[in-house]
Amino acid sequence: MPLWHVDEKGAVPMEQITQPKKRMLSGIKPSGDLTLGSYLGAIRNWKGREDSFDCFYFMADLHAITVRQDPAALRRRTIEQLAQYIACGLDPEKNTLFIQSHVHQHAELGWVLDCYTMFGELSRMTQFKDKSAKNADNINGGLFTYPSLMAADILLYQPDYVPVGEDQKQHVELCHAVARRFNGIYGEVFKLPEPFVPKVGARIMSLTNPSAKMSKSEAEDTGRVLLMDSPEVIMRQFKRAVTDSDTLVHFDREKKPGVSNLMTIYAACTEKSHEQIEQEFAGQGYGAFKTAVGEAVVETLRPIREEALRLMKDKAYLESVYQTGAQKASYVAEKTLRKVYKKVGFVAR
Ligand code: AQP
Fold this sequence. Notes:
Layout: E1 22-28, H1 36-41, E2 53-59, H2 61-64, H3 71-87, E3 95-99, H4 105-114, H5 119-123, H6 126-134, H7 141-155, E4 161-163, H8 169-186, E5 194-196, H9 231-239, H10 257-270, H11 274-280, H12 285-312, H13 315-344
Parallel strand pairs: 1-2, 2-3, 4-5
The structure holds adenosine-5'-tetraphosphate.
């Protein structure tokens, strides 16, 4: 059970705020340009928490190479992702923003935890099954042991709280299992954090295939909307969105997956309830509804896109942010790693 309560937007009631601040951590891999799903499912729920929490957010480049990447594109996307984090409202003065590969403790603890994670546990991960089906010519060891590295990402910082999308819950559960196993052998080394999955906008699906998650590494014509897409592209994507042969705007994930996905997106952008949306579009058909959803997304993303474009031109500033972030993150990560190395029996340097 969590020791504290957070509401859907991550606000913590004042009386629950104790000193020192609770810590939270999350990351996204720069395996593609950030999507509307990355924003509504993850980043949007990170911002504004820095007054209540000590927040660490990173670009998970170590995870990105489990799938073959073009080196120049990976470098570009990693830096752009940082600019987009800041543009989404993550103030680098108040949040620790860093690049995963700059903090060597991730890879080091990842290896140690590989040795405490069971083959059977890794084999059961649905993401491994999905990714290996999609990348049949490159089913590498990193793809398989990805959850041990993710456990290391989390446990290094001893966070209280890990905001994740619904699809990542299985990985956080594995992280708990590994931490419990390690603690069971060596004593209380790792804190077990709580996953937090926001209710609104928890899972954004592809606009053209609403049974599949909107993913950043998917091809352009697969119904994904990028944070940096122009308003024209966004409107075009929503006009092409799959609905159904009915004309009723009604929420039913099973029977009306396309319309329900659009409602989820609209609700997340406008803060309207499903009932309000159903009333708003009663008798109007899907054309007006799709246009309204597209426009709501354009307005939600407009300030982010403009600010990110401005920041991307300021390479020196972005460099100073990720360098400071790596220093702060390394300081915290090193404390945990040193403890782990001692416990497992490594000779101190
Ligand atoms: N469509 C989505 N809806 C809700 N949440 C999402 N997230 C990603 N896409 C959606 C959440 O973002 C966090 C970081 O995810 P990640 O990029 O590290 O991994 P991912 O979930 O594998 O993201 P993608 O976009 O699908 O990447 P690729 O295509 O490379 O595999 C997670 O909390 C995730 O839930």
